[in-house]
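Lab notebook, bench 4. Still working through the backlog of constructs that have no structural model yet. Next entry is a single chain of 155 residues. Request: give me the structure tokens for it.
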Amino acid sequence: MNDPLAKVLAAEHAAVYAYGVVGAKTAGALHTKAVAGFDAHRARRDRLRALIVRRGGTPPEPGPTYPLPFDVKDQADAVRLASLIEERVVTAYLELAADGDASLRRLAAQAMQEGATRAYGWQPAVGAFPGMPAERTSGSPPVKTEPTPVPAVSP
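Model written out:
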């Protein structure tokens, strides 16, 4: 699958499936959050399908099931899965964010912002930029997560 639109649609198909699992393992406010995530990914999936068709393509169909990265036995597992779903969907949009078409870059940026926000809502922690490795292995200096002091400017 070389088409970035098809790749993000496939990621949205997987997210819709996984959010079904999250919803089944949550209750109360967490279940409400799971339904909202499910609805958001379903809406984006439908928009992507329509976009691919408008551009003359054939959108990939969803799989009957998707492998989960771990067993989801309880609500804590469901929260962890929801956060991971969002991180993976954000990663899927990275390639589309580099597309030559400005409208696709905007679509990707908005989807990445929404996904990062949802991920933070599930597990409020900030690590590396979603989709980027937590540590650099090329020998380059690590990415700073603390603000850099700005030197005072003399009048």
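Notes after review: Confidence is low (pLDDT under 50) at residues 136-155. The chain is about 60% helix and 0% strand. Flag for follow-up if needed.
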